Amino acid sequence: MFALKLTQIGNSVGVVLPKELLGLLHVEKGDTLYATESPEGVRLTPFDPEFEQQMDAARKIMKSRRDVLHELAK
């Protein structure tokens, strides 16, 4: 477990990730991380181009089939 401290970065708030955590995530400066909610809390995962393509396809389907999805949700 890592304790991460929030710090002011301009008008935003950021987190500095220790070198050990960067290694575990297989990321380095300039890479993109995704923060997603999960039942266990918030999950950090590195950028995955294949996942991004799948999400783009899902967004297009959800946009074009909005009415169908709305009916299915009832």
TrEMBL record:
Check the record and name the Gene3D superfamilies matching this protein.
2.10.260.10
The segment(s) forming the SpoVT-AbrB domain are 7-52
Q: Does the keyword Ribonucleoprotein apply?
A: no
UniProt-recorded Gene Ontology molecular function terms: DNA binding
The protein's superkingdom reads Bacteria
Q: Does this entry carry the keyword DNA-binding? A: yes
**Sorted alphabetically, which Pfam families does this protein's record hold?**
MazE_antitoxin
Question: What keywords are assigned to this protein?
Answer: DNA-binding
Instruction: Give the protein's recorded name.
Output: AbrB/MazE/SpoVT family DNA-binding domain-containing protein
